[in-house]
Every structure is written in structure tokens, then in C-alpha cells.
Design brief:
alpha/beta, TIM Barrel, 11 helices, 36% helix, 28% strand, isomerase activity
């Protein structure tokens, strides 16, 4: 499944390069038009990130996210700055189908496990944004990708054994926005070692060949952002390839 992305900053569509807020590209296209175009192209889901929320640790564009969900008619997963159960409930009540939990999935696993139990695994996606060290070991970054962690990603993922966790989103920060292809080696490891999880891949897609390569892994979803904004190919082509 191809999942097109909208990254929001100050109500506008933007894309970051490797998670850097000082390396953003702004797009003049209204996010409402983008959402409608995704629906017209045949998307089922849309991924929305509140980058202001991710940076400031406080969800701040819930109203716009709700509007995009209702306007497009697409299923929506959204995140960015989610810190409280009340915020999750608000987004779900506003039309978001799944809420994406990022930093807290790393720093507060006990609390997040409780949320999974209270809300159900269909309502939460855990997002792990990782950097690879010189040995190829993935370590999550938190707080809008501004802080590194010292515990390997796979060890953190093991904390969710028995929690009912169903869906994870994994981004290789080094490839995000770079359009050099997805980290298929990392994704193969996850799919092999955690076969009961639905994996959504993110980061690096720049060509239809990159899409095809990821599709051979049969992940649950493939997020595409910058390549669609830049016109490298159309969403319809990505879905069909």
C-alpha cells in the first residue's frame, strides 16, 4: 500500500532533508489541494505530520489535520508532538483513524503500552526515526529528530512484546528526503524478526524503481513524500507499479 505524506509547518506543505528543520523546502501548494489530489489518485491512507508539533513537543495543527481528513475522505494517520492521551482522543474524535506516537514510544514505553491497551492496536502507530551508526546498528532519534538515544532500536521494539502492538513506522533519517532509495536491509531485518508487526517504511524514495524495490519486501505500507511534491512520478504511477 502506498501512503502519500503531507508534512505541515505553519499550515503549509514542507519537506525536510534528513530531519533538519534548517533544511526545509516549502511548497506553494495548498495542503487541501494536495489531500484532494491524493484521493483522486486512488490512495486509501494519508500520512500527516505536524512538524511544528514535533519540534515544539505540542500538537498544534489538529484543526487543519481534521479538515484534511474530512475534506479528502481518506483514512488518515497523523502525528507530531503527541504527548498526552487527551490529545490522541481529540484527534481520533476529529476524524483521524490512527495516531502516530514517536518520541514517547522510545522514552515512555510503559505509558504507551497502557495507551495501546486502552485504545486498541488499530488506533496507534509507533514511529521510530533511526540513525545508523558505523556498524549499521539503528538508534532512534527523538524530539523532532533533534536528540539521539543510546538504546538500539530493536531493543526498544522488544519492550512492546505482548502489548498488542500491531503497526510500526520506521524511517531511516539519513535517507529521508534524499531520494536515494529506502533502507531495504533494515526493513528486511524487521520483517524477518517481527513477522507479526505491520511495517510501514519511510524515507529515501525518489524513483519508481525505489518503489518497486520496496514492494518486493511486501511491507504493510510505503510512505512517499518529497518525490511526489517534486514531480518525480505521480501517486497513481506509484500505486500501479
Amino acid at each position: 500500500m502506498i501512503v502519500p505524506a503531507i508534512d505541515l509547518m505553519d499550515g503549509q506543505c514542507v519537506r525536510l532533508l534528513k530531519g533538519r528543520f534548517d533544511a526545509k523546502t516549502e511548497y506553494a501548494t495548498d495542503p487541501r489541494d494536495v489531500a484532494l489530489s491524493y484521493a483522486e489518485a486512488g490512495a486509501e491512507w494519508m500520512h500527516i505530520v505536524d512538524l511544528d508539533g514535533a519540534k515544539n513537543q505540542s500538537s498544534s495543527q489538529a484543526a487543519l489535520i481534521s479538515e484534511l481528513a474530512q475534506l479528502s475522505g481518506l483514512k488518515v494517520q497523523a502525528g507530531g508532538g503527541i504527548r498526552e492521551l487527551g490529545t490522541i482522543r481529540h484527534l481520533l474524535d476529529a476524524g483521524v483513524d490512527r495516531v502516530v506516537i514517536g518520541s514517547l514510544a522510545v522514552t515512555q514505553p510503559i505509558m504507551v503500552r497502557r495507551w495501546l491497551s486502552e485504545l486498541g492496536p488499530d488506533k496507534i502507530v509507533l514511529a521510530f526515526d533511526v540513525n545508523l551508526d558505523e556498524r549499521g546498528i539503528a538508534f532512534p532519534a527523538i524530539k523532532g529528530w533533534t536528540e539521539a538515544t543510546e538504546t538500539p532500536f530493536l531493543e526498544i521494539l522488544d519492550n512492546y512484546a505482548g502489548s498488542g502492538l500491531r503497526t510500526i513506522l520506521v524511517t531511516d533519517i539519513g535517507r529521508d528526503g534524499a531520494e536515494t532509495g529506502g533502507n531495504t536491509s533494515l526493513y528486511k531485518t524487521i520483517l524477518r524478526d517481527y513477522p507479526t508487526l505491520d511495517l510501514i517504511t519511510s524515507g529515501g524514495v525518489g524513483t519508481l524503481d525505489h518503489v518497486r524495490e520496496l514492494k518486493t519486501l511486501s511491507p504493510y505500507g510505503i510512505i512517499i513524500g518529497r518525490a511526489l511534491y517534486e514531480g518525480n512520478f505521480t501517486l497513481a504511477e506509484a500505486i500501479a507499479c
